[in-house]
Amino acid sequence: MKLLLVEDDLRLADALGDALGEAGVLMDHTASGAEADFLVATERYDVVVLDLGLPDGDGTHWLGRWREQGLKLPVLVLTARGRWSDKAAGFSAGADDYLTKPFETGELLFRLRALVRRAHGHAHPVLRVGDLALDTHTGVLTHAGRPVTLTAQELRLLEYLLHAMPRLVSRLELAEHVYARDQEPDSNVIDVQISRLRRKLGASLIETVRGRGYRIVSPDDGMTA
Ligand code: CA
């Protein structure tokens, strides 16, 4: 999951970066609504966490603008404003979820994962293909019932492909969703990580469509075709 945090409390931003990083979430951070406005238009995030009291305008102003422009990205409002009227203003501006400070990082993470899963059109929190199962809430991956250990980067890659399944995902789309803004991977890096995933999870799981990208192949596909 690649997240944009828009938050001018820098201590909170640092703490969240560490905690969410440990959970495998890739986080970009800005303290400015204007910069967030630029980033959501130029980068590919899976979800945005938006503070309301920003130095350059209220969060609901920026969110309303994004929704008017047709931005579909899920947005969770994270704020100290807990009154009913504040929540109503957040949802009216186009928020998908709302969490009041102080909050538990674990709860934020569960809400973010649910938002991303639903944005991809999945109802069930466990994504399955053949005997592989990824619990998107806990991040636990099992193969034939046994836990599999992946690096954070491998897990992000696999999670994105599983969410997109059975759609074909281009190398560019993968790079935009799975790698940090300042790490521009050349396509070899992605190929190497896909090879590692195949070694750990079976060669037939991920298909390379030459010149176009990758997709997850379900063992059932051949039977129904
Ligand atoms: Ca603030």
Description:
Helix 3 packs parallel to helix 4 (84-93). The chain is globular, with a radius of gyration of 18 Å. A hairpin with a 2-residue loop joins strand 4 and strand 5. It has 2 domains: 2-119, Rossmann fold (3-Layer(aba) Sandwich); 126-216, Arc Repressor Mutant, subunit A, CATH 1.10.10.10. It has helices at 10-22, 33-42, 59-68, 84-93, 105-119, 152-164, 171-178, 187-201, 221-224, and strands at 2-6, 26-30, 47-50, 53-54, 57-58, 75-79, 97-100, 126-129, 132-135, 141-143, 146-147, 206-209, 213-216. The model has no long low-confidence stretch (mean pLDDT 93). 44% of the residues lie in helices and 21% in strands. It has 225 residues and is of the alpha/beta class. It has a 5-stranded parallel β-sheet with strand order 2-1-3-6-7, sandwiched between helices. Calcium ion is lined by residues 8-9, 51, 53-54.
SSE layout:
Elements: E1 2-6, H1 10-22, E2 26-30, H2 33-42, E3 47-50, E4 53-54, E5 57-58, H3 59-68, E6 75-79, H4 84-93, E7 97-100, H5 105-119, E8 126-129, E9 132-135, E10 141-143, E11 146-147, H6 152-164, H7 171-178, H8 187-201, E12 206-209, E13 213-216, H9 221-224
Parallel strand pairs: 1-2, 1-3, 3-6, 6-7
Antiparallel strand pairs: 4-5, 8-9, 9-10, 10-11, 12-13
Helix pairs in contact: 3-4, 6-8
Bound molecules: calcium ion (CA).
